[in-house]
Amino acid sequence: MVSRMLSFGLAGIDAFPVTVEVDISNGLPAFEIVGLPDAAVKESKERVRSALKNSNFNFPARRITVNLAPADVKKVGPVYDLAMLMGFLCCDGSLQGDFSGIGFIGELSLLGEVRAVRGVLPMALKARELGFRALIIPAENMPEVQYIDQLAIYPVHHVRDVVDLFTGNAVIEPLKPIEFSPENEEDFQVDFADVKGQFIPRRAMEIAAAGGHNLLMQGPPGSGKSMLAKRLPTILPPLEFEEALECTKIYSVAARPGQDLCRTRPFRSPHHTATYVALCGGGQHLTPGELSLAHNGVLFLDELPEFSPQVLDSMRAPLEDNEITVARANGTVTYPCNTMLICAMNPCKCGFLGHPTKACTCSPGEIQRYRHRISGPLLDRIDLHIEVPAVSYEELSTKAPGEPSAAIRRRVLAARKLQIERYRDEGISKNADLSSPQVKKYCVLSPEAEQLIRKSFDRLDLSARAYYRILKVARTIADLAGSELIETIHISEALRYRSNENDQ
Ligand SMILES: Nc1ncnc2c1ncn2[C@@H]1O[C@H](COP(=O)(O)OP(=O)(O)O)[C@@H](O)[C@H]1O
Ligand SMILES: [Mg+2]
Ligand SMILES: [Zn+2]
Fold first, then answer.
1. What domains are defined for the chain?
2. 462: CA distance to ligand 3 center in Å?
3. Of 58, 309, 362, 409, which has the fewest beta carbons less than 10 angstroms from its beta carbon?
4. Model confidence over 423-444: pLDDT tens digits?
């Protein structure tokens, strides 16, 4: 007799259905798993055998074959344990019932406990999309799926719970879905009100948030670069439900199962020793990297020149495409990474070049080498370049708080609204994503502004790239001012946020 149970596999951050077929036939005792299983799937044999025994069921001393279909896709991890065990119970008649349209997800312990697995949220979304009747999941994974409606989800702790569910020995209620509520200000631990002075960096943060621009800050240690970066999520538009699901899916497949739904935009700050895999994703267990963990949020690279130049270079294409493709043994997977890149660096290795009171101890050669560690093409992806000077004692000791995040965010939201309406038919939603032809179409300058940028172009010897970058930033500055036409003041402010070394 053959039984069929449904379960799921993962491809990137999406799930696909897998049918677990169990066949028990007469013959010499044997246990075979086919259908491209990896080592963890093969080890299911031992876990299922012990879990059955320790849940007071017999393990049949017959010829057992398990097939995982579709057979041409690699199956990874211990997620199929529970479906296999159910297949056994159904196949040898220990359990009767209609199991069609029910998904089983979970790793088993030798004692029959159901353990958390990766990717339960994408699996639940797929189950709902395919019209499943119910989904059985490890109780530990419950937090990530509690917002999913229109699907009966049963969190279980032990094989006994699952058996009880189908024999009717105990009444188990499905999860009651919670309604999503957008974040409120209390969800943040930090606020722009904490930042004293620093008017130009604060303004640059506001522009970056309003147009989705990447930003590079340069300044001595202790000037507040990290402090500013950490506060960026507090002025970005609140996370929408669909975005929240996307973020949580990434966390769910990244071996952090059982997290609550993300309600604020992610802020990731990987250390500068981060490897290619840590930043971009991949590796033996195929997980998303920091770039994807920062999806819909902020990726902060502190001490930018300390990162490996090769690793930084490999981020260029993903930053352009908003997704990253990772190669694996058979084929590739793609993770989304639509993230705002915020970088910070000291002006030189010791950090005090240009400091009003402290002396720089670097040689000219050291200063050159330090700056050259960041490639031009990466700097080209960064629209805003600013100096963050050391704060003065007067500024720091003032009692007056800075402008709070909530007020800045209101202006950012108004500017974003203009962009969403303007680019409705273009498939983009913010100024940072404008292509060069789109810049020509949407960045209309007043005659005086036109004249100003022409003059600057010659005087500063600007490159074509720098030209488009300035126009994009000026577009955002005009949007913050509620002006459809780009005027001289918008261009002259945008000219301030360009980097000198990179414009030649
Ligand atoms: N503008 C500022 N207003 C208030 N506190 C500041 C300011 N700049 C720096 N600080 C204080 O100095 C500390 C160090 O700042 P930090 O952001 O780590 O500097 P950096 O990253 O530039 O080295 C902060 O935690 C904060 O307490
Ligand atoms: Mg810092
Ligand atoms: Zn120095």
1. 2-167 (3.30.230.10), 185-423 (3.40.50.300), 434-504 (1.10.8.60)
2. 28
3. 58
4. 999 989 999 999 999 999 999 9
